[in-house]
Specification:
Elements lengths: L2 H13 L4 E5 L8 H10 L3 E4 L20 E5 L10 E4 L22 E5 L7 H10 L4 E2 L19 H4 L5 E5 L4 H10 L2 E5 L6 E4 L2 H14 L5 E6 L7 H8 L5 E6 L4 H7 L3 E4 L4 H6 L7 E2 L1 H8 L14
Parallel strand pairs: 1-2, 1-3, 3-4, 5-6, 5-7, 7-8, 10-11, 10-12, 12-13
Antiparallel strand pairs: 8-9
The chain binds iron/sulfur cluster.
The site of iron/sulfur cluster has 11 residues, from loops.
Length: 315
Amino acid sequence: MLSSDISDLVRQLRQRGVRKAALQFPAGLKRQAAKYAGALQAEGFEVIVSGDPCYGACDLALETLEHADVLVHIGHAPVDRQEKVIFVPYPVDFDVAVLEKVLPLLKGKTTGLVTTVQHARLIPAMEAFLKGRGIDVRVAGGSGRTPLRGQVLGCSFSAARETGADEILFVGTGVFHPIGIALAAKARVVALDPLTGIAQEVSADSLLRKRFAVIEKARGAKTFGIIVSTKSGQQRLELAHRLAALSPDTLIVTMKEVSPDELLNLGFGCYVNTACPRLSYDDQVRFHVPVLSPQEFEILCGTRTWDDYAIDEIP
Ligand code: SF4
């Protein structure tokens, strides 16, 4: 935690007249809780910490507001506006010279640059580095669920699509985001992990093969549970009703945490997931029955063709 971050937070809390603050951290930052709480207590604030799992700004511990004047959510940018929530970034910086490693893989006339929230403040430095190497780099402005310039989320790739570039450079860890970008932007995607320096071209083919197999398996199901999340930034009830109308064998099920045990207990032959899209794509191996995305259920029901396959995004 930077002292400038905490002094900025203290300033915001004082401006709002806050006496009691609740703190929320995603899993990777939970161990920072005591440090943040100690720093705020030393400034005279009462503090409580949410210990529930948290995966994103879509998952705000709003129930803590029964015991606090404000919720301070660390590590994510807002996906929607919430009056009593303060979002505090947790940037992870690196030397942008690591982008040298990806230059041999860039072949497009124009290159769209995107990253995740942790590295978003380095977008101007990365952009300047690439321009200095003769790359025609494009960065989309922030909007909607991704308010930071060049920011993508696992449920929103509009910052990649909006560049209109013929290839996209994703700077960040893991392959889920670049695969999602390839499907959403229909462009060639190169990914650079800025912490290891590993650069690679990423294709969506393997994900598509797996999802085709999951849809085929779902054809044997007799009952379909349409999952609707009760988390603040994942609720898509209207979509769930539209999907439920596609088959007489559906039932809408509300859930907070979607776990293999809970799906097993509910006993449906297949689930359609309108909660965090990553649940279907990343966690299918943990589930005993198919968990389809909304678009995959449309394919199953014959209202969408396989050629129109699309990655699920939350608008
Ligand atoms: S819905 Fe999923 S991908 Fe989107 S912000 Fe929440 S946790 Fe991240």
